[in-house]
Amino acid sequence: MTAPVLAAGLSQLADRYDVLLCDVWGVIHNGRWSFPDACAALVRWRAERGPVVLISNAPRPASAIRPQLDALKVPRGAWSTLVTSGDATRALLAERAPGPAWAIGPERDAALYDGLGLDFAGPEAARFIAVTGPYDDSVETPEDYRDRLAAAADRGLEMVCANPDIVVKRGDQLIYCGGALAALYESLGGPVLMAGKPFAPVYDLALAEAGTLLGRPLDKARVLCVGDGVVTDVKGANAQGLDVLFVGGGIHGAETSGDGGLDPAALDAVLAAEGAHAKWAIHELVW
């Protein structure tokens, strides 16, 4: 595969694309604070080029994420609309109502289930599992769930995972996400369904929103995906036939960064390890 071209900034690519589909966590914030240069780049893109559709693996609907972005001081001018894995997953959950579901995840993710008519139960009585992440992602690991998930896998319970991310970086701490529990469940023989990145449903939503915002038929050759996760952002864009700007200093920063920037050889190795390819790469998103 062709190695990604190192880009100095988003401005270098501006004349090639009409729409950005931009990842959120790891690109414009880290869960504790936003990245001013990345936000400024998106503000300028939106003002000068076209729509910015934020595409997040957050397991909650977009309506629940907007206040979080405001609290992190991500300017409203940096994005046109927001699509989440939670939005895409609600269709899978609705198909399985009334359940009952064994819901694994923190209370803050409860908005995912609003209005779906789902009942809830413990693992012994549930008809399927709904996962947004660990109950307490500050201390728990997937191993804390092994015995309960093994019993559920033995029963053949289906798992619907609303966040395919394995880990994210919250401030300086790596925390486990729903995708880590889903990976463990699959290793135990349990069936898993996901709708967020890298899977098609969330891209279908995002591209539909982009076409509406653009006001004309969408040319996928002029859509650029921006993200820092190889398995989620890069491979998801690859599956959709979309160009990618890989933000190498994000979740893979320890693997890809050299003195003062990206190490091209390390960058290639990280992508190749997952069979992924990116047209462009940048250390951090800047204009």
Structural notes for this entry:
This protein has 287 residues and is α/β, with parallel strands linked by helices. It has two domains: 5-86 and 198-282, 3-Layer(aba) Sandwich (Rossmann fold), CATH 3.40.50; 90-194, HAD superfamily/HAD-like (Rossmann fold), CATH 3.40.50.1000. The chain has nine helices and 15 strands. Strands 1-15-12-11-2-3-4 form a seven-stranded parallel sheet. The two termini are 27 Å apart.
SSE topology:
Blueprint: E1 5-6, E2 19-22, H1 36-48, E3 52-56, H2 62-71, E4 81-84, H3 85-95, E5 101-104, E6 128-131, H4 146-154, E7 158-161, E8 167-170, E9 173-176, H5 178-187, E10 192-194, H6 200-214, E11 223-227, H7 230-240, E12 243-247, H8 253-256, E13 257-258, E14 261-262, H9 264-273, E15 280-282
Parallel strand pairs: 1-15, 2-3, 2-11, 3-4, 5-6, 6-7, 7-10, 11-12, 12-15
Antiparallel strand pairs: 8-9, 13-14
CATH domain fold name of the largest domain:
Rossmann fold
Uncertain spans, ≥5 residues at pLDDT below 50?
none
Strand content: 15-25%
Helix and strand string, N-terminal first? EEHEHEHEEHEEEHEHEHEHEEHE
Rg from alpha-carbon coordinates: 19 Å
- The structural domain count equals 2
Distance between the termini: 27 Å
CATH architecture of the largest domain: 3-Layer(aba) Sandwich
Count of individual helical segments: 9
* Helix amount: 25-40%
CATH superfamily of the largest domain: HAD superfamily/HAD-like
| Dominant shape | globular
Largest sheet: 7 strands, parallel
